[in-house]
């Protein structure tokens, strides 16, 4: 179910919200077990290193990112992906403007507190 209790989410109905300087996100769809979020980065924007108890899988939809997970950094491009284990410190730098598609398990309750 998405935020409206329906099995479908329509991009046109979901507003972007700020997620840091040069970073915006849309919480697309979720239930208590899983959540999908689209995150847009301006060139040079930084996804500040952080950790959380959720497992995260991310896909580079567009752009180029230097992604660090648990101290290892790789340059990722469109079609590449990464996995963040629970509790691992991770972050990203947008080398070019781009978009990440993030999936979390369980859902990020902190992302919907303001919805």
TrEMBL record:
SUPFAM superfamilies: RmlC-like cupins. InterPro entries: Bacilysin_H2HPP_isomerase, Cupin_2, KdgF, RmlC-like_jellyroll, RmlC_Cupin_sf. Gene3D superfamilies: Jelly Rolls (2.60.120.10). Residues 38-103 form the Cupin type-2 domain. This is Cupin domain-containing protein. The lineage of its organism: Bacteria, Pseudomonadati, Pseudomonadota, Alphaproteobacteria, Hyphomicrobiales.
């Amino acid at each position: 179910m998405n935020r409206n209790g329906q099995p479908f989410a329509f991009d046109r109905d979901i507003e972007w919200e700020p997620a840091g300087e040069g970073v915006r996100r849309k919480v697309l769809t979720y239930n208590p077990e899983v959540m999908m979020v689209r995150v847009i980065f301006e060139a040079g924007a930084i996804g500040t290193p952080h950790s959380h108890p959720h497992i995260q899988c991310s896909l580079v939809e567009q752009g180029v990112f230097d992604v660090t997970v648990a101290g290892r950094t790789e340059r990722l491009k469109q079609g590449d992906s990464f996995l963040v284990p629970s509790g691992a410190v991770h972050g990203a730098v947008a080398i070019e403007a781009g978009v990440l598609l993030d999936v979390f398990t369980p859902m990020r309750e902190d992302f919907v507190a303001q919805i």
